[in-house]
């Protein structure tokens, strides 16, 4: 399999992050928009912590939290329930992600296998970009809590006449969104969502003394650990102030796929855009979630920033960057992590009380299932497609909620114990969607435990994938499960098993997904201890065919060219003819006429085993392509002559 930039541990931690919503007053949002950024966008590059955090588990054991990244998104409620499938807009964006990503120059791997000498792309950045974006599009679901919001930042400007009235208004608004039952999304982790109060101060225009006075009152009202004074905009905007400042926001806001040279991709605002008529209140939500937006708020914010010169962060200094980074750290260490720790303890106490246990769930599950023992080798097969839904207060869901909380703060041992317990309950109730989710995360938790006290239960993942696909008919969750399991297997050198999973996940419902997975399967075959070169070539051809059907002609051409290294001059003339013919057509479509001529020429030069009719078709293709190529060369020569003259 092609080498990935991220380790599997980094991939998992970046795919499942604590979710934090942002709700801003209009004045605070306008202050942030001076930098051509919403407040949520302003924070995004600084959301990975550089310091180590800590929490205590129910047994009062200190647990480290390293390299934590939080996901900060603007609060954008919707009346439309989340879909279990990708929308056409999401599919289109994923298409352009792959379309705009091509092999890196110099990133070529060479291997020798027998008498084969192969050169191919050592990395597949298009697959990694697709995987990252796909995992970010995962809709929230009732059967898991991993992408439900844990906290909400309430942001008010220090220039407000009565800041506390604005804080109260935002707090009531968040409460209504969460508890009124009017909105289907976003979903919230727990009823008592953490509210963190942020006073946003414009250094270049605001009154510093007043801001400090208001903040002192905030600490009295909300507690010193529940609020923060964030100072930004240390310089006034203007062309003269545009020094060489870093722009950490560009990688989050202006991905190359948003400006594809082949065809204009959809604006980022279509990601998760709702087709239903939204409540008129949505027009005031101007912060944008990652890879998503509320169209109404985006249009409103454009009018605010349209006159601002320069790029992102035009009003920010490096000191402002440090202040934002410090704010994220303070919020996480003094607000978010203590909130998570408290809720883990409360859930543990509730579960112990309900189940009549004499000790914590952690201790009990270790006794029941043997903390160091490998998971059992058999998992109940799915028997039913029942659409069982648990009430929010059901003990089974509380166990799953506790497991997800532990997983998000990297307490993988306790998370595994909870997932394992929940899995057995769900299977007993034949709640197959819930069971598949518990199996999936139990497997990932087992792999991520420090010191690997138990082997990776690949059979858990296999059953989860089968259940998602066949019983629940949810290809999005099946694909997520496959992507995670494949990377884990690859990290363990189990390329044959990874290739099998990838091939099983191909289907007729998505040519793009099938092409990407077939290409990864091909790389698995060639990276085995004894490279399976012919299987590599065969699956590259299959990938090229699916890339072509998906409209990804450059990737299709690359796949066929790499496969040709195996079939060339091996006596497989019919296979060579097919590959050269396809290379010729794909090259011609991409306006690479010289390469197309060369490919068709090879077919005609060799002694052919094709029928006379087929040879005639090859000749007609060659003559047509050569005619176009000749005209192109003649036109170029004429232009050069005119320029010289």
UniProtKB/TrEMBL annotation:
Pfam families per UniProt: TRAPPC-Trs85
Gene3D superfamilies attached to this UniProt entry: Tetratricopeptide repeat domain (1.25.40.10)
Top-rank lineage group of the source organism: Eukaryota
InterPro entries listed in its UniProt record: TPR-like_helical_dom_sf, TRAPP_III_complex_Trs85
GO CC terms: TRAPPIII protein complex
Protein name: Trafficking protein particle complex 8
């Amino acid at each position: 399999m092609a080498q990935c930039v991220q380790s599997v541990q980094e991939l998992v931690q970046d795919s499942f992050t604590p979710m934090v919503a942002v709700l801003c007053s209009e004045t605070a949002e306008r202050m942030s928009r001076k930098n051509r950024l919403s407040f949520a966008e302003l924070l995004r590059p600084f959301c990975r912590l550089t310091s180590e955090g800590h929490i205590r588990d129910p047994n009062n054991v200190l647990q480290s939290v390293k390299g934590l990244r939080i996901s900060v998104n603007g609060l954008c409620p919707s009346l439309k329930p989340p879909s279990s499938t990708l929308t056409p807009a999401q599919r289109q964006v994923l298409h352009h992600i792959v379309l705009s990503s091509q092999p890196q120059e110099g990133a070529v791997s060479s291997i020798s296998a027998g008498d084969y000498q192969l050169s191919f792309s050592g990395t597949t950045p298009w697959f990694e970009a697709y995987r990252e974006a796909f995992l970010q599009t995962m809709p929230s679901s009732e059967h898991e809590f991993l992408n439900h919001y844990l906290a909400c930042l309430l942001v008010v400007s220090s220039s407000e006449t009565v800041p506390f009235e604005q804080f109260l208004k935002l707090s009531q608004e968040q409460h209504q969104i969460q508890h009124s039952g009017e909105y289907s999304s976003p979903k919230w982790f727990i009823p008592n969502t953490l509210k963190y109060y942020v006073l946003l101060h414009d250094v270049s225009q605001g009154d510093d003394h007043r801001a400090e006075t208001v903040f002192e009152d905030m600490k009295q009202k909300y507690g010193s650990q529940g609020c923060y004074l964030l100072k930004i905009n240390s310089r006034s905007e203007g062309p003269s102030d545009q020094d060489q400042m870093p722009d950490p926001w560009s990688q989050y806001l202006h991905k190359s796929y948003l400006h594809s040279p082949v065809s204009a991709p959809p604006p980022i605002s279509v990601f998760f855009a709702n087709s239903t008529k939204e409540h008129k209140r949505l027009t005031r939500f101007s912060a944008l979630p990652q890879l998503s937006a509320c169209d109404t708020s985006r249009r409103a914010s454009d009018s605010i920033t349209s006159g601002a010169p320069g790029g992102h962060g035009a009003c920010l200094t490096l000191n402002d960057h440090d202040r934002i980074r410090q704010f994220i750290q303070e919020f996480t260490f003094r607000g978010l992590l203590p909130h998570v720790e408290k809720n883990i303890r409360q859930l543990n106490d509730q579960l112990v009380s309900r189940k009549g246990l004499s000790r914590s769930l952690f201790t009990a599950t270790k006794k029941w299932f043997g903390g160091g023992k490998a998971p059992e080798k058999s998992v109940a097969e799915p028997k039913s497609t029942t659409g069982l839904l648990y009430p929010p207060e059901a003990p089974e869901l509380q166990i799953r909620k506790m497991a997800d909380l532990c997983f998000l703060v990297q307490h993988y041992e306790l998370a595994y114990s909870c997932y394992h317990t929940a899995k057995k309950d769900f299977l007993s109730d034949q709640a197959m969607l819930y069971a598949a989710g518990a199996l999936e995360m139990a497997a990932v938790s087992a792999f991520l435990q420090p010191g690997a006290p138990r082997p990776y239960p690949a059979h858990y993942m296999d059953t989860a994938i089968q259940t998602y696909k066949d019983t629940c008919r949810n290809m999005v969750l099946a694909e997520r499960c496959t992507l995670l399991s494949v990377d884990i297997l690859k990290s363990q050198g189990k390329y044959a098993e990874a290739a099998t999973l990838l091939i099983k996940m191909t289907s007729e419902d998505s040519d793009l997904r099938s092409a990407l997975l077939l290409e990864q399967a091909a790389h698995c075959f060639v990276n085995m201890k004894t490279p399976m070169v012919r299987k590599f070539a065969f699956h590259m051809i299959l990938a090229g065919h699916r890339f072509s059907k998906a409209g990804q002609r450059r990737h299709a051409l690359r796949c066929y060219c790499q496969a040709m290294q195996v079939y060339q001059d091996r006596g497989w003339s019919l296979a060579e003819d097919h590959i050269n013919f396809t290379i010729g057509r794909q090259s011609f479509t991409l306006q690479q006429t010289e390469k197309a001529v060369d490919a068709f020429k090879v077919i005609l030069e060799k002694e052919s085993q094709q029928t006379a009719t087929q040879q005639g078709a090859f000749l007609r293709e060659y003559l047509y392509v050569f005619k176009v190529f000749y005209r192109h060369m003649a036109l170029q020569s004429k232009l050069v002559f005119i320029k010289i003259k």
